[in-house]
UniProtKB/TrEMBL annotation:
Keywords: Membrane, NADP, Oxidoreductase, Transmembrane, Transmembrane helix. InterPro entries: NAD(P)-bd_dom_sf (IPR036291), SDR_fam (IPR002347), Sec_Metab_Biosynth_SDR (IPR052178). GO terms for molecular function: oxidoreductase activity. It comes from Thanatephorus cucumeris (strain AG1-IA). The chain crosses the membrane at residues 53-72. Belongs to the short-chain dehydrogenases/reductases (SDR) family. Pfam families: adh_short. This is Short chain dehydrogenase domain-containing protein.
Length: 175
């Protein structure tokens, strides 16, 4: 993979001409100009972090599911149709349309959810009797929320972490 830098984008534009369209979901409001925003986002991310998150949340699901598919299908034959299944753990963050300042995490969780849907559809179309589902938990005390070791988070804290996008029905985090 070539070394990516903001300068490379500028040099590419000098060769190919102006960029007429680019899709992105910045949501970092502290940067007023597109250039400042792009540089700030770029500087806060590492390719290795993205690859690690996608490896853990997408590639591992694909390879582990495919490795066990034959065994799962045999289990459904033995125990009854559709009795075997896979449950992928995702996150509500994968269903949001904003970054929550976690671009890699949120997009990896979205890919996790999409891969689950693809597997479920493909297996159903091929009449392979294995269920594939995903669970997308909301906010709960964890290393990522900075609250590991806490039994629950109060509603205000949970809503703050979720950035007020979803109401917290029980006025506390999951446990």
């Amino acid at each position: 993979m070539p070394c990516l830098t903001p300068r490379l984008a500028i040099e590419s534009a000098a060769i190919t001409g102006p960029v007429s369209m680019f899709f992105n979901d910045p949501s970092a409001s502290e940067n007023k100009s597109a250039e400042a925003l792009g540089n700030a986002l770029f500087e806060n991310e590492k390719v290795e972090d993205w690859m690690g998150l996608y490896g853990n949340n997408v590639a591992s699901i694909f390879f582990v599911t495919t490795a066990f598919l034959g065994l799962l299908s045999k289990a459904s034959e033995t125990r009854g149709a559709w009795s075997a299944g896979v449950i992928n753990i995702s996150s509500m963050s994968g269903q949001l349309r904003i970054s929550e300042n976690k671009f890699a995490y949120n997009s990896a969780k979205a890919a996790n959810i999409q891969l689950t849907k693809i597997f479920a559809t493909e297996l159903a179309l091929k009449k392979i009797p294995v269920r594939i589902n995903a669970i997308a938990p909301g906010v709960y005390p964890s290393e990522m929320t900075g609250e590991q070791g806490t039994h629950t988070l109060p509603g205000k804290e949970a809503s703050k972490i979720a950035q007020g996008l979803r109401p917290i029905p029980f006025d506390r985090s999951g446990k």
